[in-house]
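User: Look at the shape:
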Amino acid sequence: MIVFKMFFPSGCRKVLKEIGIGPLNPNETVQANLEAQLLSRLDHPAIVKFHASFVEQDNFCIITEYCEGRDLDCKIQEYKEAGKTFPESQIIEWFIQLLLGVDYMHERRILHRDLKSKNIFLKNNLLKIGDFGVSRLLMGSCDLATTLTGTPHYMSPEALKHQGYDTKSDIWSLACILYEMCCLHHTFTGSNFLSVVLKIVEGDTPSLPENHPKELNAIMKSMLNKSPSLRPSAIEILKIPYIDDQLQHLMCRYSEMTPEDKNLNCQKEAAHIINAVQKKIHLQTLRALSEVQKMTPRERMRLRKLQAADENAGKLKKLVEEKYEENNKRMQELRSRNFQQLNVNVLHESGDLTSEKLSEAQPMSPLDLSTLESDVEDTSADLGDHAGGGAGPPGGLVALREAPRAGTTSTLELGCDQAQI
């Protein structure tokens, strides 16, 4: 494969990759062209943009976005040789960018099939996923025989055992990249190819050094589960509280960026990431809406009634709590005044107060609980009319009832039936 840098009069730069077709039959060439056209439709800030593809003589040519920062593998080697490590905030930021890109691909049923640090590129210090499976398909590197001449460091156990490749295999490779960013070396190492394969298939799951957050270590270990079905998906990882908090912090930081803080190109890339995250949130809302739309009209009607019943029950509960607080406050005032009256009587018996002072102590009128109960029942009836069309309380509500207790007061209890769909 030969790579050319292309310059345009407008100042725009792109990359032309020229891959020798060689002995590939026409069907394989057509398949590669179709796959390249599919990838050209991907539009995400964490994915290298495919602009065009064509066949020129015995070469398959792909034009892609230009990334001036080279690849992540070069960056890792640069830090390793300098004796430096990546800041924790930088690792988390890059990891989230990769998660967003991988999730974007998987939502569209696209697998990368060759995720590794050499295929992750830097542009304005932001990571972009590139070099999809088209190159592997054209160069015949999808089979294990060809892999023997390369590196298995990012391959999942199921891929090495020829048990298939799916989205969870990309997740495994992404975990290996995360480990490499943290430790500056491969996740699984060995003296030769077979020793590395043996560690991947049968070895223990490595851990991050203790100076890294335990939450990040737990996430990485779950991504390196030997069983593909037990690995989390990209969207599930993004929903983990630790990652979600970091994502929100990242969005706030990007939104506060100004051209004075960063160069203009980086500002644009940051804006693209914010838009991608906002679209992601919007798509999650649409997905929930589609689940409701799959219901039958009867099921949707019952769901609306139950939601209305829950809402009214919440309002009624709040009203009863307010009335109870008011009742309790009035009872405390009553006890306080009765205590004062008792003191007055004791003082009167001892002859310390005159009858004129005694007349100043006014007794409190008794608490009208029937009025309180009537107010709550009227409110319950109003809420029931709103949700059930005046035919009594809605499905999730039960009428208020008086529960007597010791003393001269009573409390109000609210009963609720559990509504099931």
In short: The first strand starts at residue 2 and ends at 7. The chain has two domains: 69-291, 307-413.
